[in-house]
Design brief:
2 domains, alpha/beta, five-stranded mixed sheet, binds oxa(dethia)-CoA, 13 strands
Length: 322
């Protein structure tokens, strides 16, 4: 039987920091409102780097962490809703830039759940025996689509990339992954059309932006987050107290707090970095996992659950031993 394990992680955020005070100059909001309603203090936004640039740097970081040479990677999946272009995919841009062999490379769009979807696909492709080593990336430049006149969304979304390398293993480390979607709620969080360039500069054209019914998405998130954790534990016949950490999609601090309360899980074991990065969609989970590992919040042999939810609507999670 072929199993999979994580052998390295990496991440990258653009240099420019946008604080809540900066946003007070742009929309009718306040640092106090943003902090109390979302937990966000600051976030990073790109100036000229596009999604493939952020993904490239996170990938290099993960390859160095895993001590993996380019010719060892035979599968590359990028989860993004903010590609540089409709085609070629970000994964092909990266395959060339990272000097990978002529391998299987493609993008996935499952919004904020995209990284968990990519992990599921890579895990199954390796388990089939056809692939050995996968580079999986979640990368977004959401600031390209953010309406800086809409205080409901511009305070939430930001830019980042996170990467992970998983390999075929005889140890059952990545244990259970689930992914779901419910298309009948597509209108709750959506964006029509694509301003693909980061420095979009044709203001005379109508420009599409992210549209979100925040309260409805909030209700959905607080329902599926605990449900997914319980499902993963049931799949593995495990209990909550065997988990070292839950690394949830960083969409809103209150969603994380609420899930901990519903699950009766210690709040200090819910990983939080939304205060520093905001909501970075598909990058959120791999960025948080990378940070949790690098800061020692997750250690070798720890068992943790990661869980994500987002537009689609989509959701999913994974139960993993490091
Ligand atoms: O990543 C994928 C999924 N996305 C999410 O998970 C997002 C989920 N939703 C949320 O995080 C929250 O719904 C928001 C942070 C977007 C909004 O928080 P809320 O507590 O649901 O606020 P609300 O939309 O119910 O608005 C409450 C009040 C309203 O004013 P009135 O009508 O009560 O006078 C809003 O106009 O807060 C107002 N408001 C703001 N005030 C200051 C909304 N945005 C802001 C703002 N600053 N930025």
């Amino acid at each position: 039987m072929i199993y999979t394990e994580i052998v390295g992680t990496g991440s990258y955020v653009p240099k420019k920091v946008v604080t809540n005070t900066d946003l007070e100059q742009v929309v009718d909001t306040s640092d106090a409102w943003i902090q109390s309603r979302t937990g966000i203090v600051k976030r990073h936004m790109t100036e000229l780097e596009n999604t493939s640039d952020l993904a490239y740097k996170a990938a290099l970081n993960a390859m160095e962490d895993a001590q993996i040479q380019p010719d060892m990677i035979d599968l590359l999946i990028v989860a993004t809703v903010t590609p540089d272009a409709p085609f070629p995919a970000v994964s092909q841009m990266l395959q060339h830039r990272l000097k990978l062999n002529e391998i299987t490379a493609f993008d996935i769009n499952a919004a904020c759940s995209g990284f968990v979807y990519a992990l599921n696909v890579a895990d199954k492709m390796i388990q089939s025996g056809a692939y050995q080593t996968a580079l999986i990336i979640g990368a977004e430049t959401l600031s390209k689509y953010t309406d800086f006149k809409d205080r409901n969304t511009c305070i939430l979304f930001a830019d980042a990339a996170g990467a992970m390398i998983i390999k075929a293993s005889d140890k059952r480390k990545i244990r259970s992954i689930v992914t779901y979607s419910k298309g009948d709620y597509e209108g709750l969080l959506s964006m029509e059309g694509y301003p693909l360039k980061v420095n979009y500069s044709t203001p005379t054209q109508p420009r599409p932006f992210i549209q979100m019914q925040g309260t409805e998405v909030f209700k959905f998130a607080t329902k599926v987050l605990p449900k997914t954790v319980i499902k993963l534990l049931e799949n593995e016949n495990m209990t909550l107290n065997e988990l070292s950490l839950i690394v949830a999609h960083q969409a809103n601090r209150r969603i994380i707090d609420y899930a901990a309360k519903i699950l009766k899980f210690p709040l200090e074991k819910m990983y939080v970095n939304i205060d520093r990065y905001g909501n970075t969609s598909a990058a959120s989970v791999p960025l948080a996992i990378d940070e949790a590992i690098k800061t020692g919040a997750l250690k070798k042999n720890d068992v943790f659950i990661t869980v994500a939810f987002g537009a689609g609507l989509t959701w999913g999670g994974a139960l993993i031993e490091l």
